[in-house]
């Protein structure tokens, strides 16, 4: 999770005379919000806490983000945009080989699980999604965009599969990797085994994408 830049910020109150400066301020607000989430969790994220840490009044903060949800929408968009940009960069390095593209994306995602920001941020979102419909929608938005990259690669690898079969493979790949976070993430119990587990899981997932069985939507094999 890299720092926000003005160009990445959507901002909910554009159109001031100092528009560029406003976007830069909004980017700084998102950076503070991200740090608060990492330290205190999503439930500990409050507009007053953000205002205090960035050194502005709650009223001034509300000019940029009227509500906590407005702010979180930009924060979540910022997070997924960073990943999508990196996925595209990795794919362009392997433009002639879909298998190499898939490997590069999966290895990046797996290695990213060990980052402190990733280990703390995403489980916070998962927990919130269990209790809040809006948080669930935001989580699905993030992962849908991530899975769209996998779907595109798998479609190229397995043109004989229908759309649902490809979507199921992408979901399986995503779930299989993300589930490792609580075990091999930053300072997690099995972090020292991460390189070895990575080698196991990446090969299995690539095998699934390349030549795994064709399965109907009802779970039966063709």
Model description:
The chain has 222 residues and is mostly helical. It folds into two domains: 59 residues, Arc Repressor Mutant, subunit A (Orthogonal Bundle); 118 residues, no CATH class. Helix content is 71%, strand content 0%. The protein has ten helices and no strands. The protein is elongated. It starts with 18 loop residues before the first helix and ends in an 11-residue tail after the last helix.
List the helices and strands and how they pair.
Blueprint: H1 19-40, H2 47-54, H3 58-64, H4 68-93, H5 98-112, H6 116-131, H7 133-157, H8 163-178, H9 181-184, H10 194-211
Helix pairs in contact: 1-2, 1-4, 2-3, 4-5, 4-7, 5-7, 5-10, 6-7, 7-8, 8-10
Give the count of helical stretches: 10
The secondary-structure element order is: HHHHHHHHHH
Low-confidence stretches: 11-18
| CA-based shape | elongated
Structural class by helix and strand composition: mainly alpha
First-residue to last-residue Cα separation:
41 Å
